[in-house]
Amino acid sequence: MRFQNRRQAGQDLAAALLRRAEGGGYVDPLVLALPRGGVPVAAEIAHALRAPLDVLVVRKIGAPGQPEAGVGAVVGEDPPVFDQEALALLDMTEYQFTQAVARQRAEVHRLESLYREGRPAPRLRDRTVILVDDGLATGVTARAALLHLRRHSPARLVLAIPVCSGLGVVRQHEADDVICLHQPEHFYAVGEWYVDFGQLSDREVIDTLRSVHTRA
Description:
6 helices, three-stranded antiparallel beta sheet, alpha/beta
């Protein structure tokens, strides 16, 4: 199973969310995208649910010499979340990433300001919060995001992703519901499950957010 692009993945996810909501619906829903790749996916869900869309900026902490290999992640002013198994394989400790955490935390704040264009962060308490990305590999970024959101007492916390690896399944307490459309047996990278997986620019993220009702 491959998705044509992120838009199609979002439409398929939206259909699955609507089926899951039959008879109950979502209380005061809010769709949050992990930028950049999660934004076009989440936009389709926000349209289908007639819900506001915003972003939750989480920055990956990469392994030395392998910035794309995430060993941790940071969001807001929360403590960083690390993949302890990855640290053990690297024979490293969290304290060796202090400078990397500080750099990525500064980038979180910069991107939040850029993408929100002066809008305040949305209210999360007592809402159905649907967290969306374009795929899940190790899951450390999503895990940091879910732990952050849980601290804000949403009524229900849903993780919605088109494709995920077996390693990417979050722990039971971190989300009330996980919707993953495709969990392949052999998983190398998220991009292999899309025909078109072009990188998005910051401008495209901002334009997409502007095109969807973002008041939350």
